[in-house]
C-alpha cells in the first residue's frame, strides 16, 4: 500500500520530489515549508515554490516559524504519518520530530556523502573541481547530514556546467531516487548503510566576499569558481566601461588555450588571461541589467585590448 507521508521542503530543488511522490500514489498528509516572504518591486508576500505546488495539488500546507515548540510537535504528530520526506526544508528538525513518523524521516541531499555535508553542496563541489557529484537518500538523525544512507545516484560534473545546470539535473535525479527509496521502505526492503568516517567535508554557506574573481589562478580554477557561483551570487570583476569601473558578473565561460598577463584581455571577444591559460566569457550581467550573451554585450560595449583587470 502507498505510504502516508509528510513532505518538508522549500525551494525549486524540492518540487520534483514532491511531484514524483504524488504521481506514484503516496498520500501526502501535509506539506511543511518556510513561510512566504516579501519579494519583487511591490514587496508582496511570495510563497515558496513548494507551497505554490502543494496548493495547486490541493495538499494542506503548514508554515510554522519553528518546529521545536510543543504546539508544533502536537500538530506534526496529529498527521499520523508513516514517514516524512525532507528536501531542502531549511530548518533543523529536533529529535522529537524525527521520532514521530512510524518509519522515520528521510532526507534527499545533493552530494555524495560524507563529502559536502551542509548548506551549499552543489556550489562547493563545482568550485572544488570535483569530477562527480550526486544525490543521496539518508535516514535522518540529529547530526548535520550524518544519517545512514539508503540509496545514491551519481552524475558527472563537466567544465561546461554551472551550479544551475547541476542543480536542475540533481533535482530530477533526486525525485526519482526518493520515489525508489520510499517504494523500498513501503515493501520493507530498504537497506541502510552507515556513512564512512573518511572523506568528510563541509559545504559552508557561500559568502559574498568570496565572489570576486582572482585572475592569478589557473584558468580551470577560475572557470570552476565562476560556474560554481552561477547564477547566484555570481562571480564578478570590475570592467572599465566608458572610463568607469563597472561591476560585471560572469555567468558562463569556457577555457581557451592562450596565455598572457593575468587579467589581461587577449582579444576583443572577452578572452581574459589567467595565471595558466585563459577563459572566454560566454554569458555575463552588468550591475542592474539582465543577463546577456557576450555578443550582445559587445555590441553595446566594445572591449578592446590593451585592458587589464585586477
UniProtKB/TrEMBL annotation:
It comes from the Bacteria. Residues 205-301 form the Formyl transferase C-terminal domain. It catalyses: L-methionyl-tRNA(fMet) + (6R)-10-formyltetrahydrofolate = N-formyl-L-methionyl-tRNA(fMet) + (6S)-5,6,7,8-tetrahydrofolate + H(+). GO terms for cellular component: cytosol. GO terms for molecular function: methionyl-tRNA formyltransferase activity. Pfam families: Formyl_trans_C (PF02911), Formyl_trans_N (PF00551). The keyword Transferase applies. (6S)-5,6,7,8-tetrahydrofolate binds at residues 111-114. NCBIfam families: fmt. PANTHER family: METHIONYL-TRNA FORMYLTRANSFERASE, METHIONYL-TRNA FORMYLTRANSFERASE, MITOCHONDRIAL. Belongs to the Fmt family. Attaches a formyl group to the free amino group of methionyl-tRNA(fMet). The formyl group appears to play a dual role in the initiator identity of N-formylmethionyl-tRNA by promoting its recognition by IF2 and preventing the misappropriation of this tRNA by the elongation apparatus. This is Methionyl-tRNA formyltransferase. It comes from Bradyrhizobium lablabi.
Amino acid at each position: 500500500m502507498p505510504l502516508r507521508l509528510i513532505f518538508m521542503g522549500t525551494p525549486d530543488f524540492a518540487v520534483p520530489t514532491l511531484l514524483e511522490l504524488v504521481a506514484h500514489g503516496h498520500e501526502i498528509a501535509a506539506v511543511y515549508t518556510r513561510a512566504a516572504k516579501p519579494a519583487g518591486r511591490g514587496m508582496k508576500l511570495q510563497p515558496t515554490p513548494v507551497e505554490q505546488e502543494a496548493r495547486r495539488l490541493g495538499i494542506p500546507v503548514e508554515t510554522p516559524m519553528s518546529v521545536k515548540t510543543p504546539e508544533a510537535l502536537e500538530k506534526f504528530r496529529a498527521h499520523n504519518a508513516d514517514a516524512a520526506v525532507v528536501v531542502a526544508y531549511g530548518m533543523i528538525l529536533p529529535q522529537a520530530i524525527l521520532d514521530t513518523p512510524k518509519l522515520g524521516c528521510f532526507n534527499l541531499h545533493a552530494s555524495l556523502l560524507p563529502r559536502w555535508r551542509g548548506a551549499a553542496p552543489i556550489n562547493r563541489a563545482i568550485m572544488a573541481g570535483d569530477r562527480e557529484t550526486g544525490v543521496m537518500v539518508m535516514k535522518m538523525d540529529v547530526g548535520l547530514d550524518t544519517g545512514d544512507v539508503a540509496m545514491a545516484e551519481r552524475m558527472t560534473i563537466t567544465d561546461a556546467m554551472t551550479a544551475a545546470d547541476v542543480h536542475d539535473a540533481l533535482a530530477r535525479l533526486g525525485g526519482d531516487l526518493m520515489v525508489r527509496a520510499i517504494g523500498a521502505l513501503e515493501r520493507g526492503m530498504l537497506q541502510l548503510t552507515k556513512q564512512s568516517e573518511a572523506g568528510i567535508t563541509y559545504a559552508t554557506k557561500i559568502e559574498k566576499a568570496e565572489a570576486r574573481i582572482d585572475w592569478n589562478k589557473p584558468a580551470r580554477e577560475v572557470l570552476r569558481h565562476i560556474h560554481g557561483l552561477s547564477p547566484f551570487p555570481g562571480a564578478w570583476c570590475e570592467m572599465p566601461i566608458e572610463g568607469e569601473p563597472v561591476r560585471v558578473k560572469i555567468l558562463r565561460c569556457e577555457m581557451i588555450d592562450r596565455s598572457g598577463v593575468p587579467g589581461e584581455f587577449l582579444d576583443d571577444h572577452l578572452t581574459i588571461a589567467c595565471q595558466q591559460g585563459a577563459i572566454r566569457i560566454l554569458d555575463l550581467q552588468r550591475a542592474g541589467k539582465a543577463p546577456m550573451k557576450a555578443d550582445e554585450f559587445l555590441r553595446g560595449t566594445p572591449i578592446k585590448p590593451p585592458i587589464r583587470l585586477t
